[in-house]
Amino acid sequence: QMPGTARHDREMAIQAKRNLSKTTDPVERLRLQCLARGSAGIKGLGRVFRIMDDDNSRTLDFKEFVKGLNDYAMMIDKEEAQEIFQIFDKDGSGTIDFDEFLVTLRPPMSNARKEIIMQAFRKLDKTGDGIITIEDLRGVYNAKHHPKYQNGDWTEDQVFRAFLDNFDSPYDKDGKVTTEEFMNYYAGVSASIDTDVYFIIMMKNAWKL
């Protein structure tokens, strides 16, 4: 399992709450409210939108957008929601693409961080097809050290599946982790780590890069 993640998550949540009182940028405020719930906070908002997207259009109109924010208990008034919606509705169609929305909401990362994340991804993606699956992990990750494997609760495949589920989109756990999902996960972790140097050291240690 990813070492230190829980600690980083707590630090990030505390930091996000602190920064919330300082920022006036509406997108940043929404981002910080999500991050205040930990690195899966942005994915969680995505899940709420996914549930509301009845027609599977992967788009939301303003009413759905506001309802999603309310369902997820985001503290945002109507004006601010309008402002955010307009930023994302670039073509003025009255709908926003929520995949694009979630990617933009993701905390920005330096190229150095993206590069080390991709290195870890490539190491795990044994077959090199841009998706990490149980097959890939068999060659890289030893399930036999996992306590649930040792006490007979889980098979090797169940250990791998649980590992993949960490990175997978919570509303769409399919046992496959895309580059996008891996990046989203680490964007959350990255938000709690101030310096590139420390982030890179952490990734190198975690993945033996």
UniProtKB/TrEMBL annotation:
PROSITE patterns for this protein: EF_HAND_1 (PS00018), EF_HAND_2 (PS50222)
Sorted UniProt keywords: Calcium, Metal-binding, Repeat
Protein encoded by which gene: Capsl
CC per GO annotation: organelle
Taxonomy of the source species: Eukaryota, Metazoa, Chordata, Craniata, Vertebrata
Domain EF-hand: 40-75, 76-111, 112-147
Pfam families, sorted: EF-hand_7
GO molecular function, one term: calcium ion binding
Name of the featured protein: CAPSL protein
InterPro entries: Ca-bind (IPR051581), EF-hand-dom_pair (IPR011992), EF_Hand_1_Ca_BS (IPR018247), EF_hand_dom (IPR002048)
